[in-house]
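Practice problem 4.
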């Protein structure tokens, strides 16, 4: 009997390069390392089949190796067609972890890879954007009975899962890792803040100082991007649809205005909303010649690319990850990374130090789901507070930072109401 090959990568000869980079990232992931050491002793995931749809990066490799140390049988596929690091995929194959991911794969290959991961018959699903879970719920419903639970990494995925749950169609419990404080406070804000600027810099080599930058969306990612762009000397304008983050942006010192006004002023546009057609045809019609447009949100729908194409006379790739659209009126607009999340398309994604916390939450939540097998109804659950706090404690410890603890008197005071003025 011939076994079907359960992996598909670009080039196995890249493995050595990938291993060096995985080790380098591992040096910045002390919390994952501690969990890995405990998992190696306790084997809490012994024999558990995990299908993980995550960005194939050096940090994800460290997570996959940790799950494997815990006894899990892990298969990986990409959570975005353009985020895979081909050397990391090769290194993981060398370590015996099947990976289905090729940087630049087309949509058909992307879903073929997701299906290969589902053919692993997961007991745990791990997702970043909910493409794996939604495919399972649409086309592979027979697998749901065997699934203990799942985890979801990002804001957009959590929104999609809550919509499945609201429709009464979620088949098993899923923990919203994104909603842990030790995830979105740090990964979305400082991780995306730094790496989106990094991706745009690597793609274009622009000088940020003095540049007029429009950040669409002032959520966790938008706050980070706006702050880092400002730190590089850019003049930052924020656009929002929600009055509260819009007010926050005003009081953080940014100009806030509708995009229809900002599109005439901006030189670089960065979307981070989780929404669609945020930068639309009407905005392209008013942009300055030479405007650069990039997305850092999960899906490539935030920039209306078909609308841009409809306005263009010609298109050519002028640098890796930079497409020049020449409009009929003679203006040029530069779209970065095909509108896909620019930090992973043109750079290496978030720095390992911040993914250390996100993926510590992932590993501990997988352990939690296995422990809770059969006890949770199908729904979207928050990360247990003990896990969130533990990740924070371990991260501070790894930085050699100590903090105070409550005295008995303070604890009693904070638990009481009698004492006032
Ligand atoms: N690139 C990465 O590595 C990375 C990392 C984390 C999250 N993400 C993704 O980035 C996106 C944003 O995540 P977040 O955690 O910041 O979400 P969030 O919910 O904290 O913030 C999104 C903000 O966008 C605003 N918004 C929505 N529609 C808008 C519109 N049309 N114009 C202007 N503002 C609008 C919302 O009001 C909200 O304040 C999601 O798709 C998420 O999955 C990407």
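Answer key:
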């Amino acid at each position: 009997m011939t076994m079907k090959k359960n992996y598909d990568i670009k080039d196995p000869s890249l493995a050595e390069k990938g291993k060096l980079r995985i080790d380098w990232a591992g040096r910045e992931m002390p919390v994952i390392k501690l969990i890995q050491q405990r998992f190696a002793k306790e084997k809490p995931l012994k024999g558990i089949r995990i299908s993980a749809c995550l960005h194939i990066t050096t940090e994800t490799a460290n997570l996959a190796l940790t799950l494997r140390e815990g006894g899990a049988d892990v298969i990986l596929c990409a959570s975005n067609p353009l985020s895979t690091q081909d050397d990391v995929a090769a290194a993981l194959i060398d370590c015996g972890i099947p990976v289905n991911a090729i940087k630049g794969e087309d949509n058909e290959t992307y879903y073929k890879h997701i299906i290969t991961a589902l053919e692993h018959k997961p007991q745990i699903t791990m997702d970043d954007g909910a493409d794996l879970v939604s495919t399972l719920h649409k086309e592979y419903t027979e697998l749901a009975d065997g699934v203990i639970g799942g985890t979801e990494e990002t804001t957009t995925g959590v929104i999609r899962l809550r919509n499945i749950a609201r429709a009464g169609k979620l088949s098993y419990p899923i923990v919203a890792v994104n909603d842990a404080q030790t995830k979105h406070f740090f990964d979305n804000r400082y991780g995306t803040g730094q790496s989106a600027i990094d991706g745009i810099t690597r793609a274009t080599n622009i000088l940020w100082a003095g540049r007029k930058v429009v950040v669409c969306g002032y959520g966790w990612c938008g706050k980070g991007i706006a702050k880092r762009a400002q730190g590089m000397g850019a003049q930052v304008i924020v656009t929002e649809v929600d009055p509260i983050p819009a007010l926050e942006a005003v009081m953080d010192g940014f100009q806030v205005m509708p995009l229809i006004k900002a599109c005439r002023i901006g030189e670089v546009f960065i979307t981070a909303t989780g929404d669609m057609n945020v930068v639309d045809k009407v905005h392209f019609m008013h942009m300055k010649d030479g405007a650069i447009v990039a997305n850092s949100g999960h899906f490539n729908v935030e920039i209306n690319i078909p609308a841009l194409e409809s306005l263009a006379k010609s298109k050519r790739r002028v640098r890796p990850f930079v497409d020049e659209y020449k409009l009929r009126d003679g203006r040029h607009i530069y779209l970065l990374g095909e509108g896909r999340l620019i930090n992973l398309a043109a750079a290496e994604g978030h720095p390992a130090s911040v993914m250390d916390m996100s993926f510590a939450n992932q590993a501990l939540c997988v352990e939690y789901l296995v422990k809770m097998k059969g006890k949770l109804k199908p729904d979207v659950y928050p990360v247990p507070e003990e896990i969130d706090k533990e990740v924070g404690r371990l991260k501070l410890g790894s930085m050699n930072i100590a903090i105070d603890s409550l005295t008995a008197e303070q604890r009693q005071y904070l638990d009481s109401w009698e004492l006032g003025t």
